[in-house]
């Protein structure tokens, strides 16, 4: 292979490459986030350095890469969850619909209403199914019928038909997959613009994982979704755009920092990536 040739990968290794949007289609949509020169450190130690990318409306964007490359650190920058970590420092720019998320006059609580998050392990409250979904709207004093809001959120999370006759039952009695969909419903109930998902299916069985993936395809009609996943096949199935992160290590091994290697349409990342490091990762040569 000459230096100018793009690597070509046997996509048979990936079960199904996404039939999502092409890059030109994505870039024709409104920018929800514009990230420039973003770096994050913890107590002075650099964890992520110099990231720049745009996220567009009504798309699924996946972050992939080996452990320790800063994927979860990065996704937490979009709703300022890193603010809650002692010693964390974020520099650079994260624009949300053109507004600097880290400006002093921005309310972090309002950011987290608009930009919901679903975590790796389902974390329903020890309350009823109904009260889990109603919690956010109650706290925020949102207008309208609470019953209708709960029902619509559960319908949007593809859970209503399974729980409509037991809304007063405890949420902890649901299966793992149902609990995760309940957490998605809880996020949807406050009418967010964006949904962040940090390894949302890593603790679930294959059937529940498929339901979560199907749900993402449905939700992107109304929401913008960003997902962190270690499962490359999952990224290939659900994402329109994929960002590959890797780790730069100092020669003496004393410091490791995450860097963005490549960001492109999912099809290109998994079939003809531009960077050798991406090719090595998606073909299993490292990571």
3D structure, described in words:
The chain is an alpha/beta fold. It is 32% helix and 25% strand. The protein has 11 helices and 10 strands. The protein has helices at residues 23-27, 71-75, 108-114, 129-140, 146-156, 160-163, 176-188, 206-219, 232-238, 266-271, 276-282; strands at residues 31-42, 45-56, 60-64, 88-96, 99-100, 115-118, 194-198, 224-228, 241-249, 256-265. Helix 4 (129-140) crosses helix 5 and helix 7 (176-188) runs parallel beside helix 8. The model is unreliable at 1-7 (pLDDT under 50).
Task: Name a few traits of the molecule.
globular; 287 residues; six-stranded mixed β-sheet; four-stranded antiparallel β-sheet; disordered N terminus; 32% helix; 10 strands; single chain; alpha/beta; 25% strand
List the helices and strands and how they pair.
Elements: H1 23-27, E1 31-42, E2 45-56, E3 60-64, H2 71-75, E4 88-96, E5 99-100, H3 108-114, E6 115-118, H4 129-140, H5 146-156, H6 160-163, H7 176-188, E7 194-198, H8 206-219, E8 224-228, H9 232-238, E9 241-249, E10 256-265, H10 266-271, H11 276-282
